[in-house]
Write a structure and sequence with these properties.
The complex is a heterodimer of chains A (113) and B (113). With 113 residues, chain A is mainly β. Chain A contains no helices and eleven strands. The radius of gyration of chain A is 13 Å and the shape is globular. Chain B is mainly beta. The model of chain B has no long low-confidence stretch (mean pLDDT 92). Classes of the chains: A mainly beta (113), B mainly beta (113). Chains A and B meet through strand 4, strand 5 and strand 10 of A and strand 4, strand 5 and strand 10 of B.
């Protein structure tokens, strides 16, 4: 049973480009969470999704950021017109349901140059 | 008041000693509590979950929960250098419906050989 899969592991983008981060949850998990971690800081909640629904996006910036979790395929976190401040590690986690343990993917390290 | 508070450390203990990591949380109705370990440059790894008051033991790890005091701790017995990592306390507050895990900033632990 594969764990949470994220790709790419490392992503370099120039300022103004778009970044697409992918997350495939563990088999049987229908809840996906995205977190951002800046260097030397803790994890910050961004968005919580279930299949085809955004449940809570209160942690996601209103501009340039969007997330989806389609019926088929991975969850996508999309960052448009990236800026240097977007450089961070982005972690995806999945769980079977509410109040259960979430398991993390290996993360995508985004560097904006 | 932060929703989940941890002492950032670093906490330094000698090999073989007991390491005690502490966490307080603000939402009295929280029901689910987790400890994650994160090695530098890696993703968080779930090591313990606890839902009821009291102690829960798993190998060298013991999680302790006191809901009245809104306090959760992690004890690591016979600490090893390989335990050196950042330990993240995580809580599912009741006001989120229990689905949005809030993380503390983490406590850095160093185990000296």
């Amino acid at each position: 049973n594969a764990g949470v899969m994220q790709n790419p592991r490392h992503l370099v983008r120039r300022r103004g480009q778009e970044a697409r981060l992918r997350c495939s949850p563990m088999k049987g998990h229908s809840h996906v969470y995205w977190y951002r971690q800046l260097p030397e800081e803790g994890l910050k909640f961004m968005v919580y999704l279930q299949k085809e629904n955004i449940i809570d996006e209160s942690g996601m910036p209103k501009e340039r950021f969007s997330a989806e979790f389609p019926k088929e395929g991975p969850s996508i976190l999309r960052i448009q017109q990236v800026v240097r401040g977007d450089s961070a590690a982005y972690f995806c986690a999945s769980s079977t349901g509410e109040e259960t343990e979430a398991f993390f993917g290996q993360g995508t390290r985004l560097t904006v140059v | 008041q932060k929703e989940v508070e941890q002492n950032s450390g670093p906490l330094s203990v000698p090999e073989g000693a007991i390491a005690s990591l502490n966490c307080t949380y603000s939402d009295r109705g929280s029901q689910s509590f987790f400890w994650y370990r994160q090695y530098s440059g890696k993703s968080p790894e779930l090591i313990m979950s606890i839902y009821s008051n009291g102690d829960k033991e798993d190998g060298r790890f013991t999680a302790q929960l006191n809901k009245a005091s809104q306090y959760v701790s992690l004890l690591i017995r016979d600490s090893q250098p390989s335990d050196s990592a950042t330990y993240l306390c995580a809580v599912n507050p009741s006001y989120t419906g229990g689905f949005k895990t809030i993380f503390g900033a983490g406590t850095r632990l160093f185990v000296k050989a």
